[in-house]
Write a structure and sequence with these properties.
This protein is an alpha+beta fold and 412 residues long. It has 5 domains: 43 residues, no CATH class; 143 residues, no CATH class; 80 residues, Regulator of K+ conductance, C-terminal domain (Alpha-Beta Plaits); 67 residues, NAD(P)-binding Rossmann-like Domain (Rossmann fold, 3-Layer(aba) Sandwich); 37 residues. Helix content is 47%, strand content 9%. The chain is elongated.
Amino acid sequence: METFQFLGLGIDAWITIVTVLGVFAILMATKLRTDLVFLGAIGLLFVTGVLDAKEAFSGFSSTTVVLVGVMSVVVAGLTHTGVLHWIIKHVLGRPKDYKRALLRVMAPVAVLSPLLNTVTVVSVFVGVVKMWAKKLKMMPSRLLIPIAFASNMGGVCLILVIPQNLVVSGFYESNTGHAMGLFAPAIPGLFGLMAGMLTIIALRRLLPERKAPETAFESAGAYTVELLVPSDNPHIARSVGELGLNNVVGGSLIELRHFDDYRIMSPVPEGEPLMGGDRLVYAGQIEDLLDLKKKYGLVSADHHVFHYSEVSTARSRRYHQCGRGTVVDQEALEEELQNGRLYAGLDVFEKEPLPAESVLWDSPRAVITPHVAGDTSLPHTVDRIVDLFLEDFENYCTGRPLLRQVDRLIGY
């Protein structure tokens, strides 16, 4: 095996080449985590003897790796103590356009890079730029790519900051016998930095708007929006996928619940049809998600799904409300009951307990129940509710005092 040669390369070289190509293929063709793929590659090279134990695992003790880990902790501390917000407000501010935004973010990165390690500077500014991009309503990629270039170009200005300078310094010393000074690359470095920044600003339109897969959910805890489908929505009966409701600008659809079904769909199938009264729960950026109301004719969860026109055309109609009190306009409902065009069984209301001054209490066409309608997953609970009702119903029929009479003064 040791004497194996092909195209001038030994067996270890070919194992390495195949492993590297395999890593690229797996990363492009699958959704496996990057760290697992690289660990698998290192394990393969270790098992086949291409790398010994020291070579295989020396990267985990690398100064750069440890530094990145430490900086992650530092950045988390800066975020939770409000330092990043202070930097955004007082250092970066709110530029008038994208060109000024590039200049504001690249300048401090370029200045700090010669003084600190470039990895350190980028680690700190990644969190800052992501938060800043949200405030400016920009894709983070259009600002993160420039700071990566600015960090490297700024680091060139000192001999000890980036490996490339150390390599050049080593060649210079071996050929001349003299060591390069700490600030030797400062003049060409500053020239390259200015030229590079001007080039990025001039070609800013070519910077891509890349959206990371986790972007829609990174603020899901703070930004979840529930929207309702009105019964006169023109998109009813069309599928979620056809309308493009699953993945929208600024977020994603995480739940759907049909008006006549207690089950919650998550994830939501592309072929699921939209129906009046459906509830859509989105996670993402609230400004973008609220734009869906105008684009798709949706309403907020605290708005009415059924309109006054639908109620007013219902002559002698029977209506039972047991889902959400905000589904129907209660004022319109009260008016229809008073006009004699509607009978209603009401279990839920816009405001609960139902206020004592509500006209619904005295309406002969309304039957009011104390929010007990609907199904339950516990059969013994249903049996208990029925037993309690029958007990008091028997008391009522025989003239005995009721045990669970609603007190209208306190509302229950």
